[in-house]
Amino acid sequence: MTDRTPVIAGNWKMNTDVESGTKLAEEILALSASASGVEKIVCPPFISLTSISQVLAGSSVRVGAQNVSANGNGAFTGEVSTSMLNGLVSHAIVGHSERRAMNGETSADVASKAIAAVDAGLVAILCVGEDLGVRKTGEAAAFVSAQLEESLAGFSQWDSLIIAYEPVWAIGTGEAATSDQAQEMTAVCRDVVRKLAPDAADSVRVLYGGSVNSGNISELLTQPDIDGALVGGASLKADEFSKLIAAASSN
Ligand code: PGA
Q1: Do 119 and 34 touch, CB atoms closer than 8 A?
Q2: Which ligand 1 atom is at minimum distance from the Cα of 212?
Q3: What one-character-per-residue DSSP string does 111-141 give?
Q4: N or C: which end of the chain has fewer CB within 10 A?
Q5: CB 160 within 8 A of CB 123
Q6: What is the pLDDT of residues 112-161, one digit of tens each?
Q7: Cβ(126)–Cβ(101) under 8 Å?
Q8: 140-151 and 107-119 helices cross at what angle (nearest 10)?
Q9: Whose CA is nearest to atom 2 of ligand 1?
Q10: 147 within some domain
Q11: Domain count, the chain
């Protein structure tokens, strides 16, 4: 057994506007403020971060960005730098599969973003995962292992890292990985950390993501290498997200 504090992080993706997002944050806070022994994080769209960081200031619910630029301020149209996020967020998702697939982010890009995030004092939530084609070849473990190692090139601030194993075939499909599949692959992720930084392997949190809901969270959390969840769809409903927090809470 470990003493790793579980994490429930909500990735709102391109959903909500400032008004509805702020309301959602208020509802999540009201329903989950008293849950202890679990780290609660919401990752709203950039435009809502100012409002939501005020709503959640001083509370137990932390705020994360869904992405961050690896570059400092300058001529990067449409991008958001770590310094712009200063004071608004404590965490930043990097390498989500949607950004890898739709925005062409490579693992080298993800490594640069993770380093920029932690250098700015943020915790990086670094996502990896295989697609269905890779899963069908039986090479998922080797693929994710290599993807994670490449995404951690040059990384050294292990206290500021959370890894999210998110199989692409399980994201938004309603078809979560089984808890055995998720356990196997989160253990693969932890083994990568053990290889790169042996002292960090037992303390780094590794999350599962992909169609997590209140019906499957408890079984996922029984697995020894699953330290919580990165949640998309189910994070957009305050009552459902609060159930996930409650399932991971120690009270
Ligand atoms: P989902 O998304 O929970 O809607 O499957 C997970 C994610 O993309 O982080």
Answers
A1: no
A2: 3
A3: HHHHHHHHHTTPEEEEEE---HHHHHHT-HH
A4: N
A5: yes
A6: 999 999 999 999 999 999 999 999 999 999 999 999 999 999 999 999 99
A7: no
A8: 50
A9: 232
A10: yes
A11: 1
